[in-house]
Amino acid sequence: MEFIEREDLLLSKHNVNNSKKNEQLDESRVDDRAKHLTTNQGLKMSEDEFSLKAGERGPTLMEDFHFREKMTHFDHERIPERVVHARGFSAHGEFELYKSLENYTKADFLNDTSKTTPVFVRFSTVAGSKGSAETVRDARGFATKFYTDEGNYDLVGNNIPVFFIQDAIKFPDLVHAVKPEPHNGMPQGASAHDTFWDFVANNQESAHMVMWTMSDRAIPRSFRMMEGFGVHTFRLVNAEGKSHFVKFHWKPVLGAHSLVWDEAQKISGKNPDFHRGDLYNSIEDGDFPEYELGIQVIAEADEDKFDFDILDPTKLWPEEDVPVEIVGKMTLNRNVDNVFAENEQVAFHPGHVVPGIDFSNDPLLQGRLFSYTDTQLIRLGGPNFHELPINKPVCPFHNNQRDGYGRHTINQGQVSYHNNSLANNTPETASPEEGGYEHYHEKVEGRKVRARSESFKDHFSQAALFWNSMSAHEKDHLIQAFSFELGKVESESVREQVVEMFSNVSLELAQGFAENIGVKPPVSGGSNTSKASPALSQANTNFKAETRQVAVVMGEGFNGEEVEKVLDGLADKGLKTSIISNKQGVLSGSDGVELKIDHTFTTADPVLFDAVYIIGGKSHDKAFTQSTEYYINEAFKHYKPIGATHQGVSFLEKGDVLNHEGVVAEDDAETFISTFTEAVEAHRHWNRSLV
């Protein structure tokens, strides 16, 4: 009951906020009409079409300050893009805590269930530049900024729970290897090339992460349908100073679902903005993406009780061994107002923490604590990036820092140092009891060495665990992904090295892709790991029909009232329908029913939808028939649900797709709505024969 009331309260808040927002927009439009164009100094300008010249056909004059200001600003509008995670999109939202975690942490936003914490989330691809496509095979960034009353907390993670390397000193090498090769600048936003796979073969700690990036997890259906992970082991510290190790998880309420590879490649051409468009439109439509926050907790005393090192960033904690406890929910309910000011200027840093959250000795995390601040200094132009509106805390902040590029604060007084007497030693530090941050008092000792712990040297057991956990179709997708990626590698030596490397993970896997890439399949190898973790397979995620996109292929003369009833019924189930035909405008059916066309065959494509519903009509030409057959064939080979009623059934009969899993042909509206919704809810129908 409390959960339902919370949902109602959120909806009520949204409706009120939307109403206020609309009123503000209406007022702003009136205000905009009353505004005059000015320079950045506030000077009203009488002309903005022509530069100042010596005569109508003469040279432009240097004294044209308006031209200089406008052009100078334009010339300097671009900032350096992120080296990694350049291609991203963001949204605002809020986080609500289900239950207090005071036994684990003194972080206020994880203690007080009555508080709603504002958040800002940025999703991204890793390898590609700012202009690259979004549905490439890649890890995805999932970075969350919590604007808490104790300061900003950044949970900077990915949609994959492990990483390629164990020590941050190798991060430049990894990125250099996966980026376009320097001699020709290719390929863009892809790992299917020699240098990346040469890095993999010669840095075998990457085996586990490569299994994830070759899996369906690396081509998510949408940002709304992918998990998020903090990747590293962090610490939670409670008010008594007791510490627990923790890993953070974001679980999408809609479940974790993916594209198929052929579909992903086609979407890159049809709509390179597919993921950001999905996120933006969902929020605009009020279908707010939701993610539940989960934590895995290990007591300090249990640190060494596992068959892996819990500080190793190439290892996960199997959920069957360390259960994920769901503790709260994040709802993304507002789009950015300005992509540059928010999405591009936002600065995340794993070192932005609040009291009660601390770090472990994970060597990759330790390196990130330096790297992120250093990156923002060059990307955002100096040390004052925290004063940009998107990065600014909601709580007051006071210190003796001064000056620098982009300084917004105008500090008063003569004192800019600590300790002092001229300003009564202000601002004062805060004790832990007053909310002052105190690092966990961990005992640390040892010799200074450049070395890796022996407990970090097992590179294949969890890669094998991942393989063992996959369903049959997921294993097949892994083999095909390795085949595609390594098929693009020109070096035969590199291909051979990778086959040998992954024969240590699974002989079935290595033999499966070796033959496809012209390498002699290994005859020995395999792993002694027989354990599986069902939580790693997307076959065991949530399945929901809500917000799924359905292409409704329709022509003139459709069965009016029946079709209208079906479309209303699908909408009641939460499905989103778009009417597709061969021309824009309005379609006329029987019973005087008219329906507006949303897209034409030339402006939409079946790969952009989750399912296809064929209605047809009494009147259609050859071009309509060919386009409809194309929609059916594409949906069928991508294992998507296909439905048909009335005249549409004949298209399925002609295409020989009837009587296959996930294909629904039914004229009765109620039966069709129910059966087709169930088919859509399943996401894909992997048992369908494609022969």
UniProtKB/TrEMBL annotation:
Its EC number is 1.11.1.6. GO terms for cellular component: cytosol. SMART domains: Catalase (SM01060). Gene3D superfamilies: 1.20.1370.20, 3.40.50.880, Catalase core domain. GO terms for biological process: hydrogen peroxide catabolic process; response to oxidative stress. One of its GO terms (molecular function) is metal ion binding. There is a cross-link at H349-Y372 (3'-histidyl-3-tyrosine (His-Tyr)). It holds the Pfam family Catalase. Heme binds at R82, R122, F171, R368, Y372, R379. The active site is at H85, N158. Keywords: Heme, Hydrogen peroxide, Iron, Metal-binding, Oxidoreductase, Peroxidase. It catalyses: 2 H2O2 = O2 + 2 H2O. InterPro entries: Catalase, Catalase_AS, Catalase_clade2, Catalase_clade2_helical, Catalase_core, Catalase_haem_BS, Catalase_immune_responsive, Catalase_large_C. Residues 38-426 form the Catalase core domain. Its cofactor is heme. PROSITE patterns: CATALASE_1 (PS00437), CATALASE_2 (PS00438), CATALASE_3 (PS51402). Decomposes hydrogen peroxide into water and oxygen; serves to protect cells from the toxic effects of hydrogen peroxide. Belongs to the catalase family. HPII subfamily. This is Catalase. It comes from Halobacillus yeomjeoni.
